[in-house]
Structure formats: C-alpha cells, structure tokens
Design brief:
It is a single chain. It is built from 10 helices and 2 strands, in the order ββαααααααααα. The chain has helices at residues 10-27, 29-32, 63-99, 101-115, 119-130, 134-161, 164-171, 176-212, 224-230, 243-274; strands spanning 2-3, 6-7. The chain has a two-stranded antiparallel ribbon. A hairpin with a 2-residue loop joins β1 (2-3) and β2 (6-7). α3 (63-99) runs parallel beside α6 (134-161), α3 packs antiparallel against α8 and α7 (164-171) crosses α8 (176-212). The protein is elongated and about 70 Å long.
Amino acid sequence: MQIFGHRLSLTAWIGLAIVVINLLAALLAPVMAPYGQAELVGDVWAPPSGQFWLGLDNLGRDMFSRLLYGARTTISIALVITICSFAIGIITGFAAAILGGWIDTALSRFVDAMMAIPTLIFGLIILSVLGTSIPVLIGTIAILDSTRVFRLSRAVGLNITVLDYVEVARLRGEGLWWVMRREVLPNALPPLITEFGLRFCFAFLFIAALSFLGLGIQPPLADWGGMVRDNAQAINFGEIAPLIPAAAIGQLTIGVNLVVDWLLSIHSRAHGEGA
C-alpha cells in the first residue's frame, strides 16, 4: 500500500493500525460499549471477568465501556483543538511572512511573549479563572498551541514568499488571502502535515494531564486522563485499574508518532533529492 506515492514501512503500518483502531473505537463507542459511561454495574474495583473484560473502576463502572467512551471524548476534543490551532497559526504565520514589516514584528513578539510562559502553568491559570467547560478548554489549548504552528508557518512561508511565482501573484494584484490559499499553502503542506500529527499528540497529552489534575474534561464524561486520576488509589491495593487508561494514552501517542516519523522521513528524502 502507498500513501502520498510512498510505500508504508513496517513501523508506519503499525502506527497506522493503532490510529485506525482507536478512531474506530471512538466512532463506534455507543455501539461497542456494553454499558453506559456513568452506569454503576458492580463492586468497586472488581477484577476482570467474563462479564467485565477490564474490571470495574472506583465507583463500580465498567472500565471497558469507559475506555471506549473516553477515546470518543479525548480524541475528538484533541482533534478539534488541533484543527483550531492550525487555523489560527497558519493564517497568522502566513500573513506575517507575506506582509512583513510591523505586522510581522508585532505578531512575532506577541508569540515570543506567550511562549516564554510555560504552557501548562499558563493553561492552569486560564482554566482556573474561566472555568473548565469544553469550549473554554478547546479555546485555551488551541490558542496556546497555535504559537508553535505560527512559528513553523512563518518560517516555511518566508522561504516560499521570496520565490518567483509568489512575486508574480503579488504583482498581479492578488490579495493576501488568495496568495496564502493558492500559492503558499499548497507548497507548505508536507511540513504542516507532519506538524499536525505532533500537535495532535501535544493536545491529546495536554488534555490528559489537565484531566488528571482535575481541570480538564469533567465528570460524568469519561476521558483517559480522568480515569487515571479516579483510579490512582487502586495501585495501593494491587489493582491494575489506573494502568489501563495510562496504557491507552501511551499506545495512541506511540501510534501517531510512528506515522509522523514516517512522514518526516518522506519529507527529508524529498528535500534531499530536491537539493
């Protein structure tokens, strides 16, 4: 099988399989889950059995069902955050690269100031003040993450805007949006696609970290970071309940990174051949 005209490596196959399985689990969670995500079905921290494949959690809810619903919640929110951060970062980054001057300076200095503050601390402050609703969570992480996308988009855009076909488009009188959409974006896609995978991993892990700290996705919605927090005390009793969502977080992150590594190798080879 080939994607983008390149054959998938073994590690890329593994990563793609992991990503597809997780997406299917997220999409089909209401169909596949034997119980509701907040339904109490048995004793606290009951061990795995034929009825409860992964056991029960700290309130007696089915871990397998909550894992499926958690995939649906966490992955969908992380995906929306990544898309929003790319929309903000690409538009502002390309605008800074194309327009230059004081606009480039103002945007760059603003981004530098935001990046100077540790992301987790910044996020915790904003969520503590504005609350932990899903729209606030999405907006906060998307804005914080867009600074990284801005830096990449601006750097790539600066290399493209000096090329002849962009200069010709600007001399024809084409507007900023047309130049960004028709000239700069198509030629900047390879690094941006790779960065999208990395930013998704960041958003996914950031949501899990905030949920573990109690400022992310709130009950009764299931999410993997919150599941680790809810069942953390089970370790003291020799139970594996918190290890299950932790393993889910790890396997999806590894899967996405395997695909990203393959995309990076393609981009590096193409860049080397072009040179």
